[in-house]
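User: quick one, fold this
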Amino acid sequence: MIDRITIYIKDVELDDIKERLDLLSVGEAKDGSLIYFTERRNLKITYKGRILWITGSFHKYAKGNNYSLFTYDEAMNVLFELSKYTGISLERFIVSSIELAINIQMEWNTEKYLSILHSYKAHPFIYMSPMKGTSRLKGCKCHLSAYTIKFYDKTFETIKSSRLPKERWAEIPDNLLRYEIQLSRKQLKNNGLMNVTGKNLLSRLHYIRFKRLMDSIFDKIIFDDITINYTEMLADDVKRYIFAKSDKYDLYLQYIKEYKGEKEYRKERRRTNELFKRTALSVKGIFESELKSKFKLAISKI
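Assistant:
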């Protein structure tokens, strides 16, 4: 569940950690103080201005990859190990940002599932930039003030970004779809997760809240599967549904916001969300059904 994370620890004396962490001077900060750096497996550890920063993937740190199953308990073991390694108690570990992620094993090529992602709370999913040196669709994302939601082809991303030799690519599962939520410290607070530290991450309450957040966001995603049964919908709903899913709808929303005002804009968005909820049973297709059932299975294992 917990993958990439950024942690900082204030008021750390350099003499207490320099030899312990094997820190090396790598540059100079704006205030003239030296910057020190080291790596532990895939984690980057930086010391500057009396603050120790730890950044990287807990999943890769523990497993050497981030496409395998990674449970909350395994993430907690990483925290205990980092506390022992730094000699600093977990209550001083302040979480600056965190990435919650699940890998979902699908039956078909991941592009089929990426193509049905439409929107979340009227915010459209947009294509992510292709990976460097490729032109293939990597995934889709939806950026909101509270968090960023991503879905992408984990099999393809791992092959292109990992250092595994070609003869070991068979170890990477086929058709692996990754679902991620990225949260900053401010976004964590906005979602009721106040003052997240290494110590309170050990609490099962945070585990429940993280799972609930991933579940609730997923349940509110609007899909656009091609196997829509319009015969079960009212004619007016069909007309509004097709328009709301068209490329022109965003332009219409922009017009409402600029010329009719914020109140009418919010009213229009509510009407559209109500339409999507009302017609959900009619528009659910085979890829959407599979994705939802596989997601429930994947989240139950972490």
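User: anything notable?
Assistant: Residues 262-278 form the longest helix (17 residues).
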